[in-house]
């Protein structure tokens, strides 16, 4: 499946129903070091849900997060009435017992997207990237702030595989209109122990150090042997 960024770059190509698409990692061109230990940057589902015809009314896109497991591909994010789940990070133990809603944002019509040509402009880069990308795990205070209001999008766990799903919600009815598949598992990075970090480019292994020491001492022993031979020849 080609990355959404590549398709958008060719003029916001139209897709079919979002039901056959998956959330994708953001392109490394625009999100380096992704995933991190606690965050994942994804491409927003732009030009997916309004591909066949323009949508009328107000819509939002919900992003659900789930720790990968044997049955995670079939996990539902709606009830029997098509009402989207409102489960939180805390209620699902960070996605371990079920999907939680991490992010919600307005559906931007494909025709209203900012041009990617200006992404190199420092004054516009942040606005453009926010229009195209969504970051999971960026709110470090919502779990502990008693005054926090809104969706809590706290840091993810390191070295953990997650799946993600976008859901289109009609805000007039409060019901699910469309949704993507669950993404393939995306693994956050693992913290590297300090003891194994090579802090000096010239660091060598123990074996190399021993060999270097022997080779470094060899000229000394040869010189001593040569001097001894000269002394013996004079006696």
From TrEMBL:
Transmembrane region(s): 208-234
Keyword Membrane assigned: yes
Keywords, comma-separated and alphabetical: Membrane, Signal, Transmembrane, Transmembrane helix
InterPro entries: Uroplakin-3, Uroplakin-3a
Single Gene Ontology BP annotation: epithelial cell differentiation
Protein's name according to its UniProt entry: Uroplakin 3A
Superkingdom as given in the UniProt entry: Eukaryota
Listed CDD domains: UP_IIIa (cd09970)
Presence of the UniProt keyword Ribonucleoprotein in the record: no
GO CC annotation terms, alphabetical: apical plasma membrane urothelial plaque
């Amino acid at each position: 499946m080609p990355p959404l960024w590549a398709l958008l770059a060719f003029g916001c190509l139209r897709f079919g129903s979002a039901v056959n698409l998956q959330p994708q990692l953001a392109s490394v061109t625009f999100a380096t070091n992704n995933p991190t230990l606690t965050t994942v940057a994804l491409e927003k589902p732009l030009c997916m849900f309004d591909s066949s015809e323009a949508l009328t009314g107000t819509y939002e896109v919900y992003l659900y997060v789930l720790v990968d497991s044997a049955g995670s591909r079939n996990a539902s994010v709606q009830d029997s009435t098509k009402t989207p789940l409102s489960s939180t990070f805390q209620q699902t133990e960070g996605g371990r017992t079920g999907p939680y809603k991490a992010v919600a944002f307005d559906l931007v019509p494909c025709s209203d997207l900012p041009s990617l040509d200006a992404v190199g402009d420092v004054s516009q880069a942040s606005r453009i990237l926010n229009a195209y990308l969504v970051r999971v795990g960026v709110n470090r205070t919502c779990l502990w702030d008693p005054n926090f209001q809104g969706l809590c999008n706290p840091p993810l766990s390191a070295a953990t595989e997650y799946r993600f799903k976008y859901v289109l919600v009609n805000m007039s009815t409060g019901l699910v209109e469309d949704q993507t598949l669950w993404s393939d598992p995306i693994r956050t990075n693992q913290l590297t122990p300090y003891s194994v970090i090579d802090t000096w480019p010239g660091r060598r292994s123990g074996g190399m150090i021993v060999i270097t020491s022997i080779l470094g001492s060899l000229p000394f022993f040869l010189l001593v042997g040569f001097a001894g031979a000269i002394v013996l020849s004079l006696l």
